């Protein structure tokens, strides 16, 4: 069995709380109480809430990119890939009873620290770039209308 470090435990719990309560819906005290440590221990690993949430968002962005790449490697067509992409969001909501982490953060964009807002914005830029590529593949393989502007389609998705 893999041992989870205290920092990883904090990151995992923070992610769950953000996905269910939002950035402004949890505190270091909430984390400490649930884990069973003092809030000073949270500060030891993450000096500020902005540091913690930026790290959570960065980790989420990387893990999401890995999940998308794995799904893409297993799919045969652009349409299967797009269906799998939608399923990533759907299963988060229906199975885990959570919202996309960066979607939740984006709903609070005006109150986020700059570093967290930048990481959230980068997640959506990554998604737009990836979607544009998949839409272009769909156009190239004849599965999508050639008149589709892939970049505009990705941006509006």
What is the H level of CATH, i.e. the homologous superfamily?
Answer: Tetracycline Repressor, domain 2
For the record, the CATH class is Mainly Alpha
- Measured by DSSP, the beta-strand proportion falls in under 5%
Determine Rg (CA atoms, Å): 18 Å
Q: SSE string, helix = H, strand = E?
A: HHHHHHHH
Q: What is the overall number of helices?
A: 8
User: Which structural class is indicated by helix and strand composition?
Assistant: mainly alpha
How many domains? 1
Low-confidence stretches: none
CATH structural architecture: Orthogonal Bundle
**What is the CATH third-level topology name?**
Tetracycline Repressor, domain 2
State the distance separating the first and last CA atoms.
Answer: 40 Å
Instruction: State the share of residues found in helices, binned by percent.
Output: over 70%
- Overall shape: it is elongated
Describe the main β-sheet briefly: none
Instruction: Give the number of DSSP strands.
Output: 0
Mean pLDDT: 92
């Amino acid at each position: 069995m893999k041992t989870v470090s205290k920092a990883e435990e904090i990151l995992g719990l923070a992610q769950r709380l953000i996905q269910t309560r939002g950035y402004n819906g949890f505190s270091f005290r909430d984390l400490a109480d649930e884990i069973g440590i003092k809030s000073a221990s949270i500060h030891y690993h993450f000096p500020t809430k902005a540091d913690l949430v930026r790290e959570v968002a960065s980790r989420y962005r990387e893990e999401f990119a890995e999940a998308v790449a794995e799904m893409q490697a297993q799919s045969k067509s652009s349409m299967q890939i797009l269906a799998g992409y939608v399923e990533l969001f759907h299963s988060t909501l229906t199975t885990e009873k959570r919202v996309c982490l960066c979607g939740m953060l984006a709903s609070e964009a005006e109150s986020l620290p700059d570093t967290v807002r930048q990481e959230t914005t980068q997640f959506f830029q990554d998604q737009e770039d990836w979607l544009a590529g998949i839409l272009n593949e769909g156009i190239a393989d004849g599965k999508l209308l050639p008149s589709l502007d892939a970049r505009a389609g990705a941006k509006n998705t």
